[in-house]
Amino acid sequence: MKNPRPSRNTRFFAFISATTATALLSGAAAMAFVAAGDKLVTVGSPSSAFLKLPRTASARGESFASHRRRVRPPTTFVSADPLGGTVNGAVTFSNTPLLLADGDSEPAISIHPNGTMAMTALSWLTFGTNLWSGPFGSTPTFRGVVDSALQLPGRRLVFGGGDADVDLGSTGTLHATTLIFLTPPTVRSFTVGVSAITCSNGTSTMLAVPGDCTSQIIDTAGADRQWITSDDRTVYISYHDSGNSSLIHVQRSDDDGFTWTRVHSPIPGQGRVTGNATFNNTQGPIVADPFTHNVYDIYAAGEASIQKGTTATFNNIIVSRSTDRGTTWTANLVFHAPLFTDFSNFFPALAVDPTNGKLYASWSDAHTVFFSSSSDQGSHWTPAVAVNITPATTALFPWVAAYNGTVDVVYYGTLAASKDDPTAVWDTYMAQTTDDGANFVQSKVSNSSNHVGVICTLGTGCPAGTRNLLDLFEVAINPSNGKAGIIYTDDTLTTSTDPNNFACFPNQLPPCPLPQVVLAQQN
Predict the structure, then answer these.
(1) CA 199/CA 211 separation, integer angstroms
(2) Distances from the Cα of 246 to the Cαs of 61, 241, 265, 445, in angstroms?
């Protein structure tokens, strides 16, 4: 998952039996998904057949010892502008479950200017990234496992589906990126690489994957939570270093995704604004702007000179801007909250309106979704406003899309006062603004509740059934009609008796929930 994983920064421990390749490729895939990108180390003696997928506290620069003895203060809710601009409305949606036998979670969506949709999701029981595409308003066609050409089962195992993102570019090319697990012959440990998958006929109704696509691995050094975006034939992929830091790496393609060159990181060399973010951040999406041709990266980061290596409660939202296609970057603070306010719940979200270059950011403190906008290419940001209202009293996993003055923010919401309430009933919501956040109309997207119980954001410490939604879902706006397409996870639709179903771990007996993704299209 798209981490939910903060840099995946708060993933969880999972132990995978590696006595046979079959065990690795079974239902344990879901565990690897949620832990994808974390540094993998062998546990015990060389003969012990276990792999340890560490929580990303260490990737954030946080030692496990310090994490265990840290006493978390009560959550500090951000003092933003008074709420009053959101009302409940009645934007309606048609919901289509995209059911697969192996289940799916943590979906992504992109919509081409002609209304063609492309959607990815992480298979729950097996390794791989599933892809659907089709015209807006239709039931999309399942195209297959988009990263299957890179998978090499056998003594040296290579398998995909650790994280995924999709971009349907203005050229009609479908760009996808996934995390790829690379194992040595002993299968005692593995690293995580980043794939770049390019399908020239991405809007075709006859698209076949992986046959119609060029698939390659562009980094094998250990990576986490990657994102992809494009501006005409210029394509960018960003991802975290999951080995020695949380440094953000960026690669650029100048030929629509076929060849790649590493460019500069959005973090280093910008003084106090990003002073400690190298080891101390949770990265949201990279976003290319076809209006200004700038590229932007958003991330939550800790307090300079205070939090480095000691805490993962990131209380700053920062956007870095490049005007020279990633060669140099300038960072600007979007929002600052009191120390120990945590905005890594999970990813901060960013969107650009391609018709005017305006920027929109959204993030959550695990209770409230906040929103800010910029009209000067990210140099200055409006005061943050709280978006969600009852019945979405508590809201998580915001995502944002913008087009022609309309901005849509989506999130999972519940009437419960806390995401940790075991009786919480969750639905999917969209809040829409046409005046840069002065007013929002909040509407329920899901036609039935998509999760009941806790939504855990603590990674390693998450009990069974509390991370079925993984770490995000997405919204995109159809440029041809201005309507929203939302793809979210629902773990109430199907069940599985597979004993490796992560929703059953560690002690529950099957049947257990089998998450599936649902496509909601605005009527």
Answers:
(1) 9
(2) 8, 5, 11, 34
> Are 281 and 314 spatial neighbours (Cβ–Cβ below 8 Å)?
yes
Reported residue count of the chain is 523
Q: Per-residue pLDDT for 38 more than 60?
A: no
Q: How far is CA 204 from CA 110, 115, 147, 199, in A?
A: 15, 12, 19, 10
- What is the Cα 94 distance to its own chain's centre? 24
Report strand pairing: 164-168 vs 281-288: unpaired
Contacts of 44-53 spanning 24+ positions with Cβ under 8 A: 46/188, 49/17, 49/18, 49/19, 49/188, 50/15, 50/16, 50/17, 50/18, 51/15, 51/16, 51/18, 51/188, 51/189, 51/190, 52/13, 52/15, 53/11, 53/12, 53/13, 53/14, 53/15, 53/16
3-state secondary structure of 319: strand
pLDDT digits (tens, 9 = 90+) for 220-233: 877 889 999 999 99
3-state secondary structure of 279: helix
List pLDDT tens digits, range 279-322: 778 899 999 999 999 999 999 988 866 766 666 788 899 999 99
CA-based nearest residue to 395, from 351, 373, 364, 374: 364
Which amino acid makes up residue 483?
Answer: K
Q: Mean of the pLDDT values across residues 20-38?
A: 36
Alpha-carbon distance 309 to 276, whole Å?
A: 9
Q: Please name which of 105, 89, 11, 157 lies closest in space to residue 514, comparing C-alpha atoms.
A: 105
For the segment 42-75, what is each residue's pLDDT rounded down to a tens digit? Answer: 222 222 222 223 223 323 233 222 232 232 333 3
Report the distance separating Cα 368 and Cα 468, nearest Å.
Answer: 21
Instruction: Return the number of other C-beta atoms located less than 10 Å from residue 243's C-beta.
Output: 18
Please give the helix or strand (H or E) that residue 31 lies within, else none: helix 29-35
DSSP state of 399: E
Q: Which residues of 452-491 are buried (b: 16+ CB within 10 A; e: fewer)?
A: ebbbbbebbebbbbbbbbbbbbbbbbbbeeebbbbbbbbb
Which of 12, 39, 15, 24 is CA-nearest to residue 186?
24
- 203 vs 33: CA distance, rounded Å: 28
Decide: helix, strand or coil at residue 274.
Answer: helix
Q: Which of 431, 502, 518 is nearest to 468 (CA)?
A: 502
3-state secondary structure of 340: coil
pTM of the model: 0.86
User: Is the peptide bond preceding residue 511 cis, with omega within 30 degrees of 0?
Assistant: yes
